[in-house]
Write a structure and sequence with these properties.
The protein is of the alpha/beta class and 403 residues long. It contains 15 helices and 16 strands. Helix 4 crosses helix 5, helix 5 packs parallel to helix 6 and helix 6 packs parallel to helix 7.
C-alpha cells in the first residue's frame, strides 16, 4: 500500500516532460499522487498503485504544472493610464518624458508610497495571476532608484510571497534607469548600484538575482558588466533586459556571465542567441510589451529554434510598456505575434519559465519535483493559447495543497 498524502485522478495531464517530438507529455485519463509537498507518482490512472490517501476527482480537467510568470515589475506606485491617453491623442514618449512622465513618474509614485500602500496595490495584481493558475512569479525592483526605495520594493515582494499561497522570486533591478539630475550621471549611478544596492540586497537576502537594462537609454555594456561582476562577487545570479531597442550585444554579454535569462531580445543577433544557448541561458519573450508599444521588430524565433535556445513567455507586467495582468493572454500573443507553436508557448510558461529563474524543482509533472499544479476546464491544451479572454482555471495546488 503506497503512503501517498493525496491523489488527484480523473484528469488529463500535460506533464511538459515528453520527448522532443511530443514535448507536452500528454497522459490521457491520468492521475497524480503527492507526498510531503512533492509529486510521488504520475501516470495513467489504471496504473495507480493501491493507496488509502484522500482523493480529488478532477472531473476530466486538464492538469499542467503550476504556471510560472518569470518577468514582472508587479510592485509599483500609481499607474500611467494618463500617459496612455496622451499618446493616443498624439503625444510622443519623448514629449511625455520631457514633461516629467515616463518611468520617472513611476519612480516618484513608488518613492512616495508607503510599504503598506505598495503591498495593498500589488495584492490584486498577484491574485489575478494566481487565479489563472500561476504558482510562481518573479518580481523586480527598479522603480525606486535609491537604496531605501529599492529595498522597500523588495520587502513588499517578499511580503506578497508570505501573505499568499504563491512562490515569489525577487530580482534587484536598481540598474533600470539613471535618476534625473543624478550627480555624475550614469557612471556615478552605476557606482551606487555596485557599491551599495547589490551588497545591501545580498546581505539582507531580499534579492534572488540581479537584473539590469542594457540599452542606449539606460546602461552601456561596460556599465552592465560592472553590475554583473558585483552580482557575481555577492553570490547572486544575473538576468538582463537585452537588445530590446537596439543590438548592443546584450545577448552575448548575458551569455558571458552565465545569465539565467536574457529578456526581450527583439534586436538580438543570431550570434548572440547561439551564445545564450551554449551558456544555458533562457530567452524570455515579452509579447505584451511588443503589442502595447506597437513594436514592429519581433524576436528572431527562427534563429532561437535553430540555436536550440529555450524560450519562456511572461507578462512583463509594468505600468509603462506592458500593463498586462494575464499570463494566459501572453500565450495567445506569443503564438499570434511571434508564431510560437502551442508546445513552445506552454513550455514557455512552465518548464522554461522555471529555468529562467534558475528553479529546477518545478515546471514539470515528474516524481520528486514540487507538487505545483494548475487545473483547467478545457478540451485540449491548445485552448489555453487559443482563447482571447476568459479564464478556464478551476484549481491550483501549491506544494501539494490546494490554494
Amino acid at each position: 500500500m503506497s503512503g501517498f498524502d493525496h491523489v488527484w485522478l480523473n484528469a488529463h495531464l500535460a506533464t511538459m516532460d515528453g520527448p522532443a517530438e511530443a514535448p507536452l507529455g500528454i497522459v490521457e485519463d491520468g492521475a497524480i499522487a503527492t507526498q510531503g509537498g512533492r509529486i510521488a507518482w504520475v501516470g495513467k490512472r489504471a496504473d495507480l498503485p493501491a493507496h488509502e490517501a484522500p482523493v480529488t476527482d478532477c472531473a476530466g480537467a486538464w492538469v499542467l504544472p503550476g504556471l510560472v510568470d518569470c518577468h514582472t515589475h508587479l510592485v509599483f506606485g500609481g499607474n500611467r493610464a494618463g500617459e496612455f491617453e496622451q499618446r493616443l491623442e498624439g503625444a510622443t514618449y519623448e514629449e511625455i518624458a520631457r514633461a516629467g512622465g515616463g518611468i520617472f513618474s513611476s519612480v516618484r509614485a513608488t518613492r512616495a508610497a508607503s510599504e503598506g500602500a505598495l503591498l495593498e496595490a500589488a495584492l490584486p495584481r498577484l491574485q489575478g495571476l494566481m487565479a489563472e493558475g500561476v504558482t510562481t512569479v518573479e518580481i523586480k525592483s527598479g522603480y525606486g532608484l535609491d537604496l531605501e526605495s529599492e529595498m522597500k520594493m523588495l520587502r513588499v515582494a517578499r511580503r506578497l510571497g508570505a501573505a499568499l499561497p504563491v512562490e515569489v522570486a525577487t530580482s534587484l533591478l536598481a540598474a533600470h534607469a539613471v535618476p534625473p539630475g543624478y550627480e555624475g550621471g550614469a557612471e556615478a549611478y552605476t557606482d551606487f548600484v555596485v557599491r551599495e544596492a547589490i551588497p545591501a540586497a545580498a546581505a539582507t537576502g531580499l534579492a534572488d538575482a540581479v537584473d539590469a537594462f542594457c540599452e542606449r537609454i539606460a546602461f552601456s555594456p561596460a556599465q552592465t558588466e560592472r553590475v554583473f561582476a558585483a552580482a557575481r562577487a555577492a553570490g547572486l545570479p544575473v538576468k538582463l533586459h537585452a537588445d530590446q531597442l537596439s543590438d548592443l550585444g546584450g545577448a552575448a554579454l548575458a551569455a558571458r556571465f552565465g545569465a539565467l535569462s536574457a529578456d526581450h531580445l527583439e534586436y538580438a543577433s543570431a550570434e548572440g542567441l547561439r551564445a545564450m544557448a551554449a551558456a544555458g541561458s533562457v530567452a524570455v519573450l515579452l509579447p505584451g510589451a511588443t503589442y502595447f508599444i506597437r513594436e514592429s521588430k519581433h524576436p528572431d524565433v527562427a534563429a532561437m529554434r535553430a540555436a536550440g535556445l529555450r524560450m519562456a513567455l511572461s507578462t512583463d507586467m509594468n505600468p509603462g510598456s506592458s500593463p498586462a495582468r494575464s499570463l494566459l493572454l501572453m500565450l495567445n500573443l506569443g503564438c499570434t505575434l511571434f508564431r510560437l507553436t502551442v508546445a513552445e508557448a506552454l513550455l514557455g510558461v512552465t518548464r522554461h519559465a522555471a529555468a529562467a529563474l534558475g528553479i529546477t524543482d518545478r515546471g514539470v509533472l515528474r516524481p520528486g519535483l514540487r507538487a505545483d499544479l494548475a487545473l483547467f476546464r478545457i478540451g485540449r491544451p491548445a485552448e489555453l493559447c487559443y482563447w482571447i479572454g476568459g479564464n478556464p482555471c478551476v484549481g491550483r495546488v501549491v506544494s501539494g495543497r490546494a490554494g
